[in-house]
Amino acid sequence: MLFSSPEFIFVFLPAAFAVYFALVHAGLDVAGRGCLVIANLVFYAWWNSAYLLLLMISVLFNYSLGSELGRMHRKGSIRAARVVLTFGIAANLGALGYFKYADFLMENYATATGGSHVALNILLPLAISFFTFQQIAYLVDSYRGQTLEYDLMNYALFVSFFPQLIAGPIVHHSEMMRQFGDSRNHRMIPGNITVGLIIFAIGLFKKVAIADTFATWADAGFDGTGPLDFFGAWAASLSYTFQLYFDFSGYCDMAYGAAMLFNIRLPLNFLSPYKSLDIQDFWRRWHITLGRFLRDYVYIPLGGNRAGEARVLSNLIVTFTLGGLWHGASWMFVIWGLMHGVALAAHRVWRGAGLRMPRPLAWLVTFLFVNLAWVFFRATDMASAKRVLWGMVDIGSIRRTTLDSLPTESLAWAGKGMDWLLAVSPPALAVQAPVYAALLLGFALIACRNPYQFVTDHPSNAMTLGAGLLFAIGIYVMLGSTSTVFLYFNF
Fold first, then answer.
1. What is the C-alpha separation between 152 and 62, in angstroms, rounded?
2. Cα(13)–Cα(16) distance, rounded to whole angstroms?
3. C-beta of residue 164 within 8 angstroms of C-beta of residue 259
4. pLDDT single digits (tens) 398-417
5. Cis omega (within 30 of 0) for bond into 6
6. Which residues does 59 contact at the CB level (< 8 Å), separation at least 6?
7. What angle do CA 51, 53, 58 make, to 5 degrees?
8. Three-class SS of residue 120?
9. How does it sit in the membrane (predicted)?
10. How many angstroms from the chain centroid is the CA of residue 175?
């Protein structure tokens, strides 16, 4: 069920909200939370009920193991707890590996050994990467004695809460289960409802009116088969860069807004990352909770900053390469993650040497690198990536497409003296004019303040009116088109 679908906006969300608060208002808090858990399961099963049992087994398995690890820590049974933790992590990663990477690993093994491979065609369970990471973090924290005596109801809410279930944020038990257990949140709070609806409306507009528009140009560029000229390749890469930005930003806004209706504040997961002046700052703003997980449960256990400089740099590269692989079973994701790991290592060396760039140049270098890396993230294979990348550096195509588009008599009349004019106003660029006009608007929008910075604490009547207008536009666009799935639902 898409956040941007009529079923969710007009049926599921109002029904879940009304029933939950009707029950808790009547003093039936446990029934209300139980109803919300059922709503979460219905939301998940809407996609494919076949994997609902997998989610339920995962919740029960990890809750039982986490509770046992907590008891072992209190008793001081560290060695036994380490065995249980290893088993729990292996079981979670085993399930994730089977459903997400089995075909990928078998195909690459067959290629390396010269054997044959019959595709298993395993259907990837929705959100398995997200709820697996959340629960691995819970097991590790239980082993460390950092979890409390949570009840199963609140744990089930923590894992399955529908605003964050499908594509994050990757929430931490300490920041979620405390909210579910707080009796002050078991009542309707008008201020939270207002903020939630405003941010949800902004997210809906980003998704259906902006991201899905850029998607048509990005798909046309990346999924085509013919060569791309300079302007076409940049139009494709930048369109995807903005599609992914507004798609994920829109999802994060809608998730945050929907959760606020239930008085639950999700952790901030997206904070204007294209304003970043370096790659480290980018990862403090883009998919913030994934970066937090990779830092706490991969980078630091590898040694983090505690080892020598060479080890620190290798830890960065390994961590983000694994982060790339987390996104999907493809060498394109591995390359993307490796690029970011190397960039973070290079940034550390650069900063350690005391080097600096002027702010405009720092922004430009960071943005261009992120845009370049997204090409591999979007491309289905290396051939597709090379096709776009070659077009992006094929400056000669500017003149070729320009000359091909002009009549012969004009060329004869113009002569070589008109070369400068052809370079300044090529007809090839005019063909891409709508795309580049939209890209200019995209740059203007990313320069604006993030909605969290001025909506969350002080919603005004003007903000409410503006959000209502965006919501109306979003609904109009949504009903008139077939909205694409949120991109992060694929991961």
1. 11
2. 5
3. yes
4. 765 544 443 444 334 344 44
5. no
6. 135, 155, 156, 159, 160
7. 100
8. coil
9. Multi-pass membrane protein
10. 20
Measured from the Cβ of residue 59, the count of other Cβ atoms closer than 10 Å reads 21
By the 8 A CB rule, do 35 and 114 touch? no
CB atoms within 10 A of CB 25: 13
Q: Which of 416, 402, 201, 168 shows the shortest CA–CA distance to 288? A: 168
Burial of 281 (0-12, 13-18, 19+ CB in 10 A): middle
pLDDT tens-digit series, residues 194-247:
888 888 988 888 998 899 989 989 998 898 888 888 888 999 999 999 999 999
Q: Using the Cα atoms of residue 12, residue 17, residue 20 and residue 22 in order, give the sign of their dihedral.
A: negative
The single residue of 327, 340, 347, 458 carrying the catalytic annotation is: 327
| Active-site residue, 117 included | no
Estimate to the nearest angstrom the gap between the alpha carbon of 87 and the chain centroid.
29
- Give the number of residues written for the chain: 491
With vertex at residue 129, the alpha carbon angle to CA 156 and CA 338, rounded to the nearest 5 degrees, is 150
Encode 291-327 in three state secondary structure: HHHHHHHHHHHHCCCCCCHHHHHHHHHHHHHHHHHHC
Is residue 214 within 8 Å of residue 446, measured between CB atoms? no
Q: How far is CA 327 from the centre of its chain?
A: 9
Sign (positive or negative) of CA dihedral 358, 242, 342, 345: positive
